[in-house]
């Protein structure tokens, strides 16, 4: 009888734990991320139509960052939460996008991406600048201030 009570209590905790996990997953799905994942079509609509333009012509209305990443890339995984935090901090002042180079090879080829993570820093006016490699949050924030918010 005691064994049955322990088994029931254990199963009940497992069911509660599974329910809590499911609620957390649903909460994560519904919470809006500050970094927007885009496709090559989105890139051409929101940033630059590299098929039609021969010179850089930014379509955005505020500075932007495009994170070229891959799901298997360790440094990209390190940068992801940093970029998410900074995107939240500068929301409304800077648009932050990410593009998976394995799914969107066309854009990666267009910009000559050979190492990742790579960040296309796009000021409101002027030419963009490519920053390559992982950076800590303070360093990346300094790059944003110097290149996008001057």
Class based on secondary structure composition and strand pairing = alpha/beta
- Supply the number of helical segments: 5
Q: Enumerate the spans where pLDDT stays under 50 for 5 or more consecutive residues.
A: 1-16, 20-31
Q: Going across the major beta sheet, what is the strand order?
A: 1-3-2-4-5
Query: Level of helix content?
Result: 40-55%
Q: Kindly report how far apart the N and C termini lie.
A: 72 Å
Work out the count of structural domains. 2
Keywords: Coiled coil, Disulfide bond, Electron transport, Redox-active center, Transport
Protein name: Thioredoxin
Pfam families: Thioredoxin
GO molecular function: protein-disulfide reductase activity
Report on this model:
The protein has 150 residues and is α/β, with parallel strands linked by helices. The protein folds into 2 domains: 1-31; 36-147, Glutaredoxin, CATH 3.40.30.10. Helix content is 46%, strand content 15%. The protein is built from 5 helices and 5 strands, in the order H-E-H-E-H-E-H-E-E-H. Strands 1-3-2-4-5 form a 5-stranded mixed β-sheet, with helices on one face. It is globular. 24% of the residues are buried. Pfam families: Thioredoxin. GO terms for molecular function: protein-disulfide reductase activity.
Short characterization:
By secondary structure, the protein is of the alpha/beta class. The protein is 46% helix and 15% strand.
Give the helices and strands, then pairings:
Layout: H1 2-30, E1 36-37, H2 40-46, E2 64-69, H3 74-89, E3 95-100, H4 105-110, E4 118-122, E5 129-132, H5 137-147
Parallel strand pairs: 1-3, 2-3
Antiparallel strand pairs: 2-4, 4-5
Protein name: Thioredoxin
Domain Thioredoxin: 16-149
Keywords: Coiled coil, Disulfide bond, Electron transport, Redox-active center, Transport
């Amino acid at each position: 009888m005691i064994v049955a009570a322990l088994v029931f209590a254990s199963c009940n905790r497992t069911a509660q734990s599974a329910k809590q996990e499911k609620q957390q997953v649903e909460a994560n799905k519904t919470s809006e991320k500050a970094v927007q994942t885009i496709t090559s079509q989105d890139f051409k609509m929101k940033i630059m139509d590299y098929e039609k333009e021969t010179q850089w012509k930014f379509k955005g209305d505020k500075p932007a960052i495009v994170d070229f990443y891959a799901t298997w890339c360790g440094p990209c995984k390190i940068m992801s939460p940093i970029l998410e935090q900074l995107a939240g901090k500068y929301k409304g002042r800077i648009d932050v996008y990410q593009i998976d180079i394995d799914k969107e090879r066309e854009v990666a080829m267009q910009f000559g991406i050979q190492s990742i993570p790579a960040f296309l820093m796009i000021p409101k006016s002027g030419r963009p600048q490519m920053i390559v490699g992982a950076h800590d949050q303070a360093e990346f924030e300094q790059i944003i201030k110097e290149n996008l918010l001057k």
